[in-house]
Amino acid sequence: MPGMRKKILWVDDEIEFLRSHVMFLETRGYSVTTASNGDEAVRLVGEDDLGYDIVLLDKQMPVKSGNATLDEIKACRPDLPIVMLTGYQHNADIAAGKRYDACLTKPVDPNKLLATCQRVLDAKLSASRKLADKYLRSYTENQTRASGQLSASDWMSLYHTLAKWDVEIDGVGGEGMRQTHTGLKSDCGKTFCGFVAENYTEWIRGRHNRPPMQVDVVRKVIAPELREGRGVLMAVLNGMRLDQFLGIERELRRNFSVSGMKLMSLLPSTADFCVAALASGFYPDEAAEAEPTVFGQGEADPIVMKRLMRRGLERAGADKAKAFYASADGVNGRRHVRSAINAMKKGPAFGVVTVDIIRKLCGGCAADTKPSDPPAIDEAAFRRQVDSWFANSTTLSMMKEACGDSCTVVLTSGHGHVFCRRPSEIYETRQTDLSRRSLFSDRVSVDEREVFLLQELSHFRLPPNEFGAMCLMAREDFYFALHTKGDNIHKPCASSFQNGGISPEEMILPLYVCRPLAGVAR
Question: Model pTM?
Fold first, then answer.
């Protein structure tokens, strides 16, 4: 083979009997690494996730099957071609789901194996070239769209297109395409920040052309379901953004009949304000007036949130429904989820269950957080982690158990997140917790090209804050770096996933309404 030797990972619990096949492939120009079980294969791919060009995978292996190994490899490398080797003459998985790139029947003929590897790799190269041509056309179109006069609806549509490209490029895109796409998103993000800064006050005053926002959900989505006698369970995956939701859409549509809409989050894009708006329909200043202790207490108090939700339902004309609120985070998360499911079975109710995705999968940048898996190091890795987590999550199990003729399930996020790359230095602030991209202060020195400064909280429907009368929000992919005495700069959140600022990734969010599939009784 001309050029660099292609690398094969061959996984088989009887690999010692296949040495002649391995030597045959190596004489034909391939470099072959072997693994005798699924766990070893997953480890090798994880350690060298760009190293292998193709995987030969035995379907019938003890301990971890070929299918289970495939799922874990695809979670790490969705673009990695896999040839399944099976003792069966016909493989229904191929015909039904096309989960593998090719399938061969054992015992395998070496020449047929060689031809299959070449065909699969040639197909991947062809697909990559086609994708590059398609992306180039889309790039020019999207660049032109971003330079025009866009409405909020236009921005939502454009960001949806960019997020779809995130997912598609993960599959077969090359590094050059990824870098080009990252640059386009950066340019769009900068323009979007200016658009929001110019229009946000008009949106929260209810002016013409306001996009759908989180405060609209109770009135437009929740209350109509409750008035029809159906309960509503809302799962709020805080920190999860549009590109990650697009990655799990296939799993959603496999289990539910799905409809939906896009929302613009409140500012600052933090869980406390945004979840309260989703659960009650109240702006932050209204929520604080109705329940003075709803903010500023760290984790949301379920009792306070339940009272706030009842007030929101009453205002929306659905006061007969019961309300409950729970967090699926922490050691009691599963118990809270079970309580939520049981509550939905007792009659029409509106329940909200929250999950902190950043803390759960990445740990954020706070010192006391411990992710369940090794933290994702970039956005593509985070997407893969979310895909893998959701398919086997308590959240999906809860949704499937609750969804039925008498209960509608809503899935959304309080806010997205940004991978923070650039520091924005701030001076003279009393708030030293820089674990998110927003903070309150009474005096501060910032670069307003990097930070959006709200100087009158009441004008932005925000309640008074103990740290000051101004709110600072980082733009684009900036994070706050505190300039301390002695010219020291504290940078706690460099290269981490954070929220609270202004960006399309944090603010443009999907909302899915999930009902039972047609013909499926629940």
Answer: 0.81
